[in-house]
Write a sequence for this structure.
């Protein structure tokens, strides 16, 4: 059945408002025009869609059956049309980011990305380095590690040089690295980080009994509150260091991994994915700290 689109739209709006007058205001036409469109539709369908009452409109059973179908159809059409702007299609891009990188590196740059990529609607999800791109419907994930993830493409973004960070009042009590042996050492679920750091400076690693954190952000907060010394990626906490919330206790750093942009190898990149990929790499090459 070939039905006029204007008549269907007039009915849908009038049915939502239960008023030809309000429908005319939304559609920017006259009340008479809306009424006539609905009459034409009723004639084509050979059924009554509204009961006209002195105080307004009431949908008939047929009108109630037709309304949700039209509302859904026009809603989906509107959603698709909103993606078109300036000759380009707006794209949604789902990016999962390990929380430390999101706060310490990506957030200071997001405004610049939005300015240069106005047609990408970025949806940002944070994680604690455990993520499944396929199961979670993600385009990319930024995570910490060695770049070897099964079935994943990976491009290194930022080195993660780690150093002991702590609150200023605790840092003032540390004269040399050996003083750390008497401190509460905060640790992540990667249990070998402190042993790597002590091996770098030539000291035997102590048996670490401090709390274990699954988030560097939470561990940094504990360090800022004076609960101990945290081994953290320095590049991700530049703001905290500049503002004096944390102090790098010693210059020696150790690298146990990097931050990587990852994606499912078997999935072709969309234009939005290519744009984000290139932008992230460009930003990473210019400067690894904001």
């Amino acid at each position: 059945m070939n039905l006029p689109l204007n008549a269907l739209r007039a009915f849908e709006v009038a049915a939502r408002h239960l008023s030809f007058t309000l429908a005319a205001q939304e559609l920017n036409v006259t009340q008479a025009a809306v009424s006539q469109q609905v009459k034409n539709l009723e004639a084509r369908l050979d059924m009554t869609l509204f009961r006209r009452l002195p105080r307004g409109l009431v949908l008939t059973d047929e009108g109630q059956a037709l309304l949700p179908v039209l509302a859904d159809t026009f809603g989906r059409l509107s959603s698709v049309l909103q993606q078109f702007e300036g000759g380009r299609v707006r794209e949604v891009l789902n990016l999962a980011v390990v929380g430390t990188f999101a706060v310490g590196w990506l957030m200071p740059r997001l405004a610049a990305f939005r300015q240069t990529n106005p047609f990408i609607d970025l949806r940002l999800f944070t994680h604690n380095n455990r993520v499944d791109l396929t199961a979670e419907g993600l385009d990319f994930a930024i995570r910490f590690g060695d770049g070897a993830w099964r079935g994943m493409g990976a491009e290194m973004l930022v080195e993660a040089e780690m150093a002991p960070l702590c609150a200023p009042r605790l840092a003032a009590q540390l004269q040399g690295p050996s003083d750390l042996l008497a401190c509460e050492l905060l640790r992540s679920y990667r249990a070998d980080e402190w042993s790597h750091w002590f091996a770098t400076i030539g000291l035997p690693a102590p048996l670490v009994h401090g709390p274990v954190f699954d988030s560097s952000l939470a561990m940094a907060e504990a360090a800022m509150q004076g609960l101990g010394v945290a081994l953290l990626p320095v590049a991700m906490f530049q703001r905290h260091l500049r503002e004096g919330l944390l102090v790098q206790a010693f210059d020696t750093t150790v690298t146990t991994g990097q931050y990587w942009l990852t994606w499912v190898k078997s999935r072709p990149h969309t234009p939005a994915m290519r744009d984000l990929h290139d932008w992230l790499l460009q930003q990473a090459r210019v400067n690894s700290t904001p």
In short: Residues 5-82 form a domain with the Arc Repressor Mutant, subunit A fold (CATH 1.10.10.10). The two ends are 60 Å apart (CA to CA). The CA atoms of residues 98 and 243 lie 23 Å apart. The chain has two domains: 5-82, 89-290.
